[in-house]
Amino acid sequence: MTTMSAEHTAPRSHSAVAEARRAARAFLEALGQPAMGREQADTVVLVVSELVTNALRHGGGAYTLRLAAHPGTIEVAVEDPSPRLPRMRTPDLVDGTGGFGWHMVNDLAHDVVVTPGPGGGKTIRALLPR
After folding, report:
1. pTM of this prediction?
2. Residue 55: how many CB atoms within 10 A of its CB?
3. Per-residue model confidence as pLDDT tens for the chain (130 residues)
């Protein structure tokens, strides 16, 4: 049973990732009592940041962020218009081209599911402890 959900859609902008982090913090604060621990909240915001960054960088430049609270779990879902599925790659320690985020999301979440969209695009869902 979902206790609360929220949606945030934005095109590419200099502040898109910061806006997504603010939206996630506002969502978590609105959950009320029992309050989510700071570490769990920071983990949710980190996963939001990584998934939105990846959607902007690799997914076509636009995204929709959906957040839902379930008993014991926070669901972070990011939809983008690209049908290209994420892949693990070796992190780049020399040129700074990334490769850390997808590993991090998979390590922090209990479950990560990538669902291709019916008309293209995809949705990535990460389930995190509440």
Report:
1. 0.86
2. 29
3. 455 565 666 666 668 899 999 999 999 999 876 667 889 999 999 999 999 999 998 888 889 999 999 988 999 999 999 999 887 677 666 776 666 788 899 999 999 999 999 888 999 999 999 8
